[in-house]
Design a protein that fits this description.
single chain; 403 residues; Rossmann fold; OB fold (Dihydrolipoamide Acetyltransferase, E2P); 2 domains; 5-stranded antiparallel β-sheet; 9 helices; 25% helix; elongated
Length: 403
């Protein structure tokens, strides 16, 4: 079935890409290389530049500076329809007056490709919708429409398939199902998928490589597990999941555990140990962290053992049930607010609101960040749209008065 779609996609390379709009810089000097045949996720919050990057690759925007190469070919100045790229949007953009099979075959027919309907049926078989090929889009569910849009993109055998938050309009259960299906399809057809999303779980579930983007630049890139377990910056630590971060002075290197080299950081009157290989900086004032699910709650002070960090006592200020786990928030003097995720092994909370508790965690689960503590923001705050419009109006009125 998938033999016709087994050709691998092309690699994508962005060299020194900058994109400026009136009043702000969306992307600044971005270098990126995505290997052929990979599933790559560009992850970040609204306004970080990820959708602008996708539009630049698709040819829907022109870079202010830099080059875009697909399969080694410079396409920076190539028209969108001449690029070996297809995009799947969140809105699906299906033709409502056409049947499913005609939607999928549309691009092939326009380009004069032989056997357009045979290829369209192959693509629909790939997304398991060939049995609905004669229906109209409005007769399909949201998830089915998404799969038709995917088939319409895949049937053109693009070197790059760009996914612009394509699952955002789906409900949670269907979104998770589509995440697995997209990954399966990518493995089967062998194309290069570039997926833009703000959903951390979505990126980590599907992608081979994730790039976390912030303020027009990539903060960190790597395998999902690597980014989660060893974030390099505070932004990555808090955007990709949650983290408890502490700042203090490094008091020694070598560590009391003796098992492996580590640093010891003085925070709030306590000593916290972090393995040296998991810390980006080893001297001076540093920020260290630990994920909430790595912490263990204790209702009495635990015995301090080698290889374990212990903090407390603190007091529980919030208890939130979320199904699989319960989130506890506690205030630790000298440390501020600390979050703990505890798996729900019994009915009801392990400790109650207002309880006095201690927390502990394995030294090997900590990490140290590259950030300078309290570092200044990289960009000045963006000028908002209303201000830009008002400025443009003033300039236009001035020109009219001068005329």
């Amino acid at each position: 079935m998938a033999a016709g779609f087994a050709e691998a996609g092309a690699d994508l390379e962005l060299v020194g890409i900058t994109k400026r709009f009136p009043g702000f810089t969306a992307i600044e000097d971005l270098d990126l290389r995505i290997p052929a045949g990979s599933f790559f996720a560009l992850l970040g919050p609204s306004g970080c530049g990820k959708t602008t990057t996708l539009r630049l690759v698709a040819g829907l925007e022109q870079p202010t500076a830099g080059r875009i190469l697909i399969g080694g070919r410079d396409v920076t100045n190539v028209k969108p329809y001449q690029r070996p790229v297809n995009t799947v949007f969140q809105s699906y953009a299906l033709f409502p007056h056409m049947s499913v099979i005609n939607n999928v075959a549309f691009g092939l027919r326009r380009r004069g490709i032989a056997d357009p309907y045979g290829k369209a049926h192959e693509a629909l078989q790939l997304v398991e919708l060939d049995h609905l090929s004669n229906r109209r889009p409005q007769q399909l569910s949201g998830g089915q429409q998404q799969r038709v849009a995917l088939a319409r993109a895949v049937v053109n055998r693009p070197s790059l398939l760009l996914l612009d938050e394509p699952l955002g309009a789906l409900d949670l259960k269907l979104r998770r199902q589509m995440q697995l299906e997209l990954k399966s399809i990518q493995n089967e057809v062998g194309l290069t998928f570039v997926h833009v999303t703000h959903d951390q779980e979505e990126a980590m579930t599907m992608a081979d490589t994730v790039a976390v983007m912030n303020k027009g630049a990539i903060e960190q890139m790597g395998a999902p597990e690597e980014l989660y377990e060893l974030p390099r910056t505070a932004f990555v630590a808090n955007f990709l999941g949650q983290s408890n971060l502490f700042t203090g002075e490094v008091t020694s290197s070598g560590g009391p555990t003796g098992a492996a080299a580590s640093i010891v950081v003085a925070v709030g009157g306590a000593k916290i140990e972090v393995p040296s290989e998991r810390a980006q900086r080893h001297s001076g004032r540093v920020t260290i962290g630990v994920r909430p699910e790595k912490l263990v709650l204790h209702s009495s002070q635990p015995k301090k053992e080698a290889g374990t960090n212990v903090l407390g006592p603190g007091r529980i200020t919030d208890v939130s049930f979320s199904g699989v786990s319960t989130q506890y928030q506690l205030v630790l003097p000298g440390f501020g607010l600390v979050t703990v995720f505890a798996q729900n092994m019994v009915f009801g909370p392990v400790v109650n609101l207002g309880a006095e508790v201690w927390v502990s965690w394995n030294v090997d689960h900590g990490f140290g960040l590259l950030d300078e503590p309290e570092v200044a923001p990289k960009f000045e705050p963006d000028t908002d749209t209303a201000t830009i419009a008002a400025q443009a109006r003033r300039e236009l009125m001035a020109e009219i008065e001068e005329g």
